[in-house]
Design goal:
Elements: E1 2-11, E2 14-23, E3 32-40, H1 43-50, E4 61-62, E5 66-74, E6 84-88, E7 103-106, E8 112-113, H2 120-142, E9 152-154, H3 160-171, E10 176-180, H4 186-192, E11 196-199, H5 201-204, E12 215-220, H6 224-232, E13 234-242, H7 256-260, E14 264-267, H8 275-288, H9 291-297, E15 298-303, H10 307-315, E16 322-326
Parallel strand pairs: 9-10, 9-12, 10-11, 12-13, 13-14, 15-16
Antiparallel strand pairs: 1-2, 1-4, 3-5, 3-7, 3-16, 5-6, 6-8
Helix pairs in contact: 1-10, 2-3, 2-8
Length: about 325
């Protein structure tokens, strides 16, 4: 059976993205075959498709780190034909063929059941970005941060991770300050629940290693000087989660916030997260992210052929929120 797939190929230093037809026989090993109905466009997908960063390790590569659909075949008792499933990470779209395709074959332990209250479209409107935001919120909770602890800063707030983080934190009762460079999106962030909005320029340049204490916690999606300044402004005993590098992967700071104010910096990974924590994160997303917020965050639903165009727009900072990819075989 043939199905469409977005395949990345590399010749010399040139990467091309081509919509082509594959068959089930082309797929890698795995004990579950999934008919993928929806995927999404994450920052990492954008990096890979536009060749902005060496995300892909094996060529050729089917792009897409997220997918949702139904089980077509399973030799594992955990999953039955017709089960609704989703998958994030595990090297998909990097070292293993990914989800921007009509079919996906993976080990059974990669899969999570789509929460009953979610459609496949909903789950991919959330995708790795929203799932990472939930992991960040869980990390804050595990470190003892509550709404009573004080204000929480969210950087890169109009991106996928930032948008979902703002919406979840606001619904849970936190006072959220959002950081964005897009003045046109202030109303959007306010609708998601941001109590205050700060310009990106306040954080983007080099600053002092210790600054006025403001934040009980930070969800940082940006890295580089933005993360440095966020740490420098975090209150004594506060918590900063780091999950992104939109500004850069450098971290030009000192130990001063960590040894003089006992600031805790928590790294948040989304790729190799144990299955138990994944299940918790997705169930929390089902309860803590409102349908209205998710609708607001979902920027567009596109087809597979439009992905390269939207990947360029994503890398240019022209997309707010999340893009869902509908896949029709």
């Amino acid at each position: 059976m043939s199905f469409p797939a977005l395949v990345l190929s590399k010749q010399d230093q040139t990467v091309s993205a081509e919509l082509t037809q594959l068959t089930t026989k082309d797929l890698p090993e795995g004990d579950v075959l999934v008919a993928v109905s929806h995927s999404t466009l994450n920052f990492k997908d954008g990096l890979a498709i536009t060749n902005r960063s060496p995300v892909v390790r094996t060529w050729p590569m089917v792009a897409g780190i997220d997918g949702a659909g139904v089980v077509l075949e399973s030799s594992n008792s955990r999953w039955q034909v017709g089960d609704r499933v989703l998958v994030n990470g595990w090297g998909l779209g990097e070292t293993r063929w990914g989800c921007l395709a009509g079919q996906l074959r993976v080990p059974s332990e990669y899969l999570v059941a789509i929460p009953e209250t979610m459609t496949a479209h909903d789950s991919m409107a959330i995708g790795t970005a929203g799932y990472t935001a939930m992991l960040s919120v869980l990390a804050l909770e595990q470190q003892g941060i509550t709404p009573a602890s004080g204000p929480v800063l969210v950087t890169g707030a109009t991106g996928g991770v930032g948008s979902v983080a703002v919406a979840i934190l606001a619904k849970l009762g936190y006072q959220v300050t959002a950081v964005t460079g897009k003045t046109s999106e202030h109303n959007y962030l306010t609708q998601l629940g941001a109590a205050a909005i700060l310009p990106r320029e306040v954080f983007a340049a080099a600053g002092k290693p210790l600054q006025k204490e403001q934040w009980a916690a930070v969800v940082d999606c940006v890295g580089s000087h933005t993360l440095v300044n966020a740490c420098a402004q975090t209150r004594y005993g506060g918590v900063v989660t780091s999950c992104g590098l939109a500004q850069g992967m450098d971290f030009p700071t000192t130990v001063m916030p960590f040894i003089l104010r006992a600031v805790r910096l928590i790294g948040v990974d989304s790729v190799m997260v144990p299955i138990a924590l994944r299940q918790v994160a997705w169930q929390r997303l089902a309860s803590d992210l409102s349908a209205d917020a998710l609708s607001l965050i979902t920027a567009a639903t596109i087809n597979l052929g439009q992905v390269p165009q939207y990947a360029e727009q994503l890398m240019a900072g022209q997309i707010r929120g999340r893009v869902v990819v509908e896949i029709k075989s």
